[in-house]
Amino acid sequence: MRRSPPNSMPPPADPAARRNDWATIGTLLPYLWVYKWRVLAALVCLVGAKTANVGVPLVLKKLIDHLTINPSDPHALLVLPLGALVAYGLLRFSTTLFTELREFLFARVTQRAVRTIALKVFRHLHALSLRFHLNRQTGGMTRDIERGTRGVSSLVSYSLFSILPTLVEITLVLGYLGTHYDAWFAGITAIALVTYIVFTVTVTEWRTHFRRTMNELDSKAN
Question: How many structural domains comprise the chain?
Answer without folding.
Answer: 1
